[in-house]
Specification:
Largest sheet of chain A: 7 strands, mixed
Shape of chain A: flat
Structural class of chain B: mainly alpha
Strand content of chain A: 25-35%
Oligomer: heterodimer
Radius of gyration of chain A: 31 Å
Shape of chain B: flat
Largest interface: A-B, 46 and 42 residues
């Protein structure tokens, strides 16, 4: 979990409501309308009057709901009887946040958290399947355009459980330019662009001069990073195994050809036992090579990060930066490999902690959220989905190549 | 006339697959369908079988030569889980070879029409299609079982005809 800074940007208003809340609101609205009409006129209880009253009640209910703004209200599915409380705390934009969901009957089965952006786009932010828990801690990524989150799941008795929270923008946190909540750091990340990524081939260099990498600023740096630095190399072991297999097939085919030619001249027998023995050997050999290629073929997920000069001048002319090289460092973290491009020697101040990040984890959930602990802010190109791994750790769900800008501690 | 699995045929099957394995990175940005990842090397082997007019025994050797490349591609590029798909692919290749063998004949007079390229293609498709279809629509293990059944039936038909 990234340390949350820049508080008071968003206020959570209320968390928790019950399934009967909408019905009560309608009844109370209806009573208020009834009082206003009490001026001595005779009330006609006809069918038409009832319909009019119903329409009025609905209109009043909608007006009341809008006047309240549904701000921070967490509500259960009407009629389900399930209670849910969604406590989102004070989320930080461009960071992973935690929320707590609890229900009277606990939570069991699937649990999903959705986020809705200001343009109405709905993103799945968290997904997990749990046996049973009284409360569930949900890790989700928040960004400035996130206006609401909603939880959907089932309680311990199998009933539907849902709750939602709408975020409000506090006056102090609103950006003057675009009206979104955030602070100076969020604003600086907002200005950065993401390049277009095509599948890259080849081998990444061991080092790259900073002037070549980010001579024109972060935009160029990101473009070069995805094209030349964030490259998955080759697995030598699997290629060697396949090359040996190719040679073996070629040699075996040659021997077989000679044997058949000899058999045609009557030099060798071709009995059933001999054939069966050869067939068995072939099956064993093919199985062994296939298993080897299968085991060696899988490459681990990769978390790329390249230090980027925040100012274009830092990389292209300021004293002391001409000869700086970004050097590739690779660290094996078990489920994934961390590949970073950092300035040689001690980190220079010109980077300002800005990193361009790439995550390649298309097969399985391999990169834990804790891998981003060193970043105080992260701006993903698309909001990532967080899931829980078999060991209970929160991880990024497998997805096509993801890109992000990050501010390193 | 059908041909045995010569060194040239072996090179024709394996060298292009090795070149592609060397050219591609260890992993792609996006996981691709296991049917595509594992199926392409075997499809290449099938093309070589058809174009080179390989005999049934040589066809089995060609598919066996391509199988490790299929396993490599499944592990590196295919969606998870890849192991059931590997079995499904291997079983469908076996079914294709068995169906192709069941359609062949030893009689010289009948050999020419029996080894017709279109007929060989159809036989291999008939052998592989049921298992692959079921693997795609239901589960890879189901496809594996159906392919094994098809291979068994094809071998039974072959044996009955030989007697």
């Amino acid at each position: 979990m990234i340390r949350q800074v820049g508080s008071d940007l968003v206020r959570k208003r209320i968390s928790g409501i019950f399934s009967t809340e909408p019905a009560r609101a309608v009844r109370s609205a209806g009573r208020r309308r009834g009082d206003d009409l009490g001026n001595g006129r005779v009330r006609v209880r006809g069918r038409e009057e009832k319909e009019k009253k119903k329409i009025k009640n609905i209109v009043v209910f909608v007006i009341l709901m809008f006047s309240e703004g549904f701000n921070g209200v967490a509500h259960a599915v009407p009629g389900s009887g399930a209670l849910a409380v969604l406590d989102t705390g004070t989320p930080t934009g461009y960071a992973f946040n935690e929320a707590t969901v609890s229900g009277r009957n606990g939570i069991s089965g699937s649990a999903t958290l959705f986020g809705t952006s200001v343009d109405g786009t709905r993103f799945k932010l968290f997904e997990s399947t749990i046996g049973f828990a009284e409360s569930l801690t949900v890790t989700y990524y928040a960004w400035p355009e996130l206006v609401s989150v909603s939880f959907e799941g089932t309680d311990g008795e199998g009933a539907d459980l849902s709750a939602s929270v709408r975020f409000l923008k506090s006056g102090s946190g609103v950006n003057a330019e675009d009206g979104t909540w955030g602070d100076r750091e969020a604003g600086s990340l907002d200005a950065l662009e993401f390049p277009f990524r095509l599948q890259t081939f080849g081998t990444p260099p061991g080092a790259i001069p900073v002037a070549e990498f980010a001579g024109d600023g972060p935009k160029r740096a990101a473009r070069i990073a995805v094209a030349r630095l964030f490259v998955t190399g080759r697995r030598a072991a699997s290629i060697i195994a396949l090359a040996l297999w190719t040679t073996a097939v070629f040699v075996a085919a040659g021997l077989r050809h000679r044997e058949q030619a000899g058999a045609a001249r009557g030099q060798a027998g071709n009995g059933f036992r001999r054939k069966a023995l050869k067939f068995s050997m072939l099956v064993c050999l093919v199985s062994a090579i296939t298993a080897t290629a299968f085991m060696l073929g899988s490459a681990p997920a990769e978390l790329f990060a390249a230090a980027v000069p925040a100012r274009s001048g830092a990389a292209s002319g300021e004293a002391g930066t001409e000869s700086v090289l970004l050097v590739r460092q690779s660290i094996d973290h078990g489920s994934y490999r961390g590949i970073s491009w950092n300035p040689q020697g001690e980190e220079k101040s010109w980077t300002d902690g800005l990193r361009f990040i790439g995550i390649r984890s298309p097969h399985t959930a391999s990169v834990p959220i804790s891998a981003f602990d060193a970043y105080r802010r992260l701006r993903f190109k698309n909001p990532p989905l967080v899931i829980t791994g078999p060991d209970g750790r929160t991880m990024l769900a497998p997805a096509p190549f993801m890109m992000a800008w990050g501010l390193h501690e | 006339m059908s041909r045995p699995f010569s060194p040239a045929a072996a090179a024709f099957v394996t060298l292009p697959l090795l070149a592609v394995a060397v050219a591609l990175p260890a992993g792609l940005d996006t996981a691709i369908s296991p049917l595509v990842a594992g199926g392409l090397p075997l499809a290449w082997a099938a093309i070589v079988v058809i174009v080179s007019r390989l005999d049934p025994e040589a066809s089995a050797a060609a598919f066996a030569a391509a199988l490790p490349f299929s396993a490599h591609a499944l592990a590196a590029f295919g969606q998870r889980p890849p192991l059931p798909w590997l079995f499904a692919m291997a079983a469908s290749a076996a079914a294709a070879v068995a169906a192709r063998a069941a359609g062949s004949t030893r009689r010289a007079a009948e050999r020419a029409p029996a080894e017709n390229q279109a007929r060989v293609t159809m036989l291999m498709v008939l052998g592989a299609a049921p298992g692959l279809t079921l693997a795609r629509l239901a589960s890879p293990w189901g496809g594996c079982a159906v392919s094994a059944l098809v291979a068994g039936l094809a071998l039974l038909a072959l044996e009955r005809r030989r007697r």
